[in-house]
Design goal:
By secondary structure, the protein is of the alpha/beta class. The protein contains 16 helices and 19 strands. Helix content is 37%, strand content 18%. It is globular and about 60 Å long.
Length: 446
C-alpha cells in the first residue's frame, strides 16, 4: 500500500475573500497521519504543494503512483480559521483521479455530503483524520469506518462520528517527511516547526470554529511534548517553533515543565504561542522569556466591554490591559488580534477597538472582519438562507461588508502609520523582517 498525503496550494499568499494569509507552515496534521501509517509499516509520502513548483495537473499525475490519496482543505494551523474561497481547493483537486481520492479538513467536516456530491471522490473524512485514514489504508469496509462519509450503491452513507483520540496515543509526528528549512514565520525566522500540546478550548466564544477539535479540551502529557520538541531540535535542526494550541498557557504545568527543560538544555530555540490575557502571570511569563519565548499571540477582539460580553469572550478590558502590560514587563513581544462586525456593534464600538489597539500598543496588531463560520453561534445569528457550501465573509445584518472593510483598513492605517510606532520598529525591530512586514501591510490595506 502506497499512500500520499497532500497539503494543497492556495494560489496567493493572501486570499482576497476574508483576507486569509496563506503562510508556509508545516502541515502538522499530515505529519501526525504519516506517523500513524508508518507505525503500521505502510509506505507513505507527505507532499506540500506550497513549497513546490508543480501545477495541480502535475500533482495529479504524480498522485497516480499511489494506491490511496488524501488531500486536506485545511492544514492543522487553519483548522480554526479555514479559507473562505473554497473554489480554489476544488480547482486544485479537479485533475485528480477520484476513485482513490479522499478529502478531509474543516470544510469537509462542515459540508461532507455536499462536497461528496460535488466532487465524486471516494470519501470525505470528518473531524480528526489520523485513525480514519489508517482504517481506510487497512482496507476496512467503508461502511464500518467511523468518521467517514461515502457513496455506496448510489446513496450517501454517513457513518457515525469517530471517538475523540487521546493525544498521547499518537506516535511522534513524522518530522522527517518535511524539511524545516522550507518553512518559516516572519516574526521568528526559518528552520521552523509547529507543535501542539492540546486540542480544543474550554471557552465558547460565539465566533470560534472548533469542529475539527470536537467538543472537548484534551491535553498531551508533558513528557510526550518535550520528547517531540527535543527530537525536532536535535534531529531535524529546528530553530524556531510555534505551539499552536488554541490556548497554550491554560496548561500551566506543561508550560512550566517545558520551559524548565528548554532552559536546562540551553537550546538556540526561539518560539511563540497563543494565549488568553487572563491566563498568564508575571512569574510564568518571565520563565517563558528565559526559555526562548519571543512573542505571544493574544485574541483581544473588541475595545467595547458590552461586545466582549456579547461574544462570550469571558474577558474584561481590565484583564486585557493587565495581561499585555505583564507580557511587556517580562520582555516578550505581542501580537494582538482585533475584529470588526459582531452583532450589536456600532461605529462607536469600532472606534473604541482602534483606540484600544493604539493604547495597548502591541508589537504587531492584526485587524479582521469577524467571520460567521458555519458551526458557530455567530453563523446561527446570521441565519443565512444559503445552506450549500455557505462560507459568508461577514455578519452583514447591521453593517455592509464595505463598511466593515473600511474600518479594518482604517485600523491598519491608524495603528501602523503612527510616527512613534514607526520609530520604535526601526530601532527595535529586525531589519530582515521589515520588507516582509511592509508587504503584508500593503496587502491588508488594499
Amino acid at each position: 500500500m502506497m499512500v500520499l498525503l497532500v497539503n494543497p496550494a492556495w494560489e496567493t499568499h493572501i486570499s482576497p475573500k476574508g483576507k486569509r494569509f496563506n503562510r508556509h507552515f508545516p502541515p502538522l496534521d499530515l505529519l501526525s497521519c504519516a506517523a500513524v501509517l508508518e507505525k503500521e509499516h505502510l509506505e507513505v509520502k507527505v507532499f506540500d504543494a506550497n513549497i513546490t513548483a508543480l501545477s495541480p495537473s502535475d500533482m495529479a499525475e504524480y498522485a497516480k503512483n499511489f494506491d490511496k490519496v488524501f488531500v486536506t482543505s485545511t492544514p492543522y494551523y487553519k483548522w480554526q480559521c479555514p479559507n473562505l474561497d473554497f473554489d480554489v481547493f476544488l480547482n486544485f483537486i479537479k485533475p485528480f483521479r477520484k476513485d482513490n481520492l479522499f478529502l478531509m479538513g474543516t470544510h469537509c467536516s462542515l459540508y461532507p455530503e455536499q462536497i461528496l456530491r460535488d466532487t465524486g471522490v471516494a470519501g470525505i473524512i470528518r473531524g480528526e483524520p489520523e485513525y480514519t485514514i489508517l482504517e481506510l489504508c487497512q482496507n476496512k469496509p467503508l461502511r464500518g469506518v467511523r468518521g467517514l462519509s461515502c457513496m455506496l450503491r448510489g446513496s450517501i452513507v454517513t457513518n457515525p462520528d469517530r471517538d475523540l483520540l487521546s493525544l498521547d496515543q499518537l506516535p511522534m509526528p513524522a518530522y522527517h517527511q518535511v524539511d524545516p528549512k522550507d518553512y518559516g514565520y516572519e516574526i521568528l525566522g526559518n528552520n521552523f516547526m509547529i507543535f501542539e500540546g492540546s486540542r480544543g478550548c474550554p471557552y465558547k466564544c460565539i465566533y470560534c470554529l472548533q469542529i475539527m477539535y470536537g467538543n472537548s479540551y484534551r491535553r498531551k502529557s508533558v513528557s510526550k511534548l518535550i520528547g517531540e520538541v527535543e527530537y525536532a531540535i536535535e534531529k531535524t535542526g529546528v530553530k524556531n517553533g510555534y505551539f499552536y494550541d488554541l490556548e497554550f498557557t491554560l496548561n500551566k504545568d506543561l508550560v512550566g515543565k517545558l520551559c524548565d527543560h528548554l532552559i536546562e538544555k540551553k537550546y538556540q530555540f526561539t518560539w511563540t504561542c497563543q494565549s488568553r490575557v487572563d491566563s498568564v502571570d508575571l512569574q510564568m511569563l518571565r520563565k517563558m522569556k528565559e526559555a526562548g519565548c519571543k512573542v505571544i499571540h493574544y485574541g483581544i477582539e473588541s475595545g467595547a466591554e458590552h461586545i466582549l460580553e456579547r461574544i462570550n469572550k469571558k474577558i474584561h478590558l481590565g484583564d486585557i490591559e493587565k495581561g499585555i502590560a505583564l507580557t511587556r514587563k517580562a520582555g516578550i513581544e505581542t501580537v494582538c488580534f482585533f475584529q470588526f462586525g459582531f452583532p450589536g456593534e456600532t461605529e462607536e464600538d469600532f472606534l473604541k477597538t482602534i483606540s484600544l489597539a493604539k493604547r495597548l500598543n502591541p508589537t504587531y496588531a492584526s485587524f479582521h472582519v469577524a467571520t460567521p463560520y458555519p458551526g458557530t453561534r455567530l453563523f446561527d445569528i446570521l441565519a443565512t438562507d444559503d445552506t450549500h457550501l455557505a462560507f459568508p465573509e461577514a455578519y452583514t445584518k447591521e453593517h455592509s461588508l464595505e463598511e466593515l472593510e473600511s474600518f479594518r483598513r482604517r485600523a491598519y492605517l491608524q495603528f501602523y502609520l503612527r510616527p512613534g510606532y514607526i520609530v520604535s520598529r526601526l530601532f527595535g525591530g529586525n531589519p530582515r523582517s521589515w520588507l516582509k512586514q511592509g508587504r503584508l501591510f500593503i496587502n491588508f490595506v488594499k
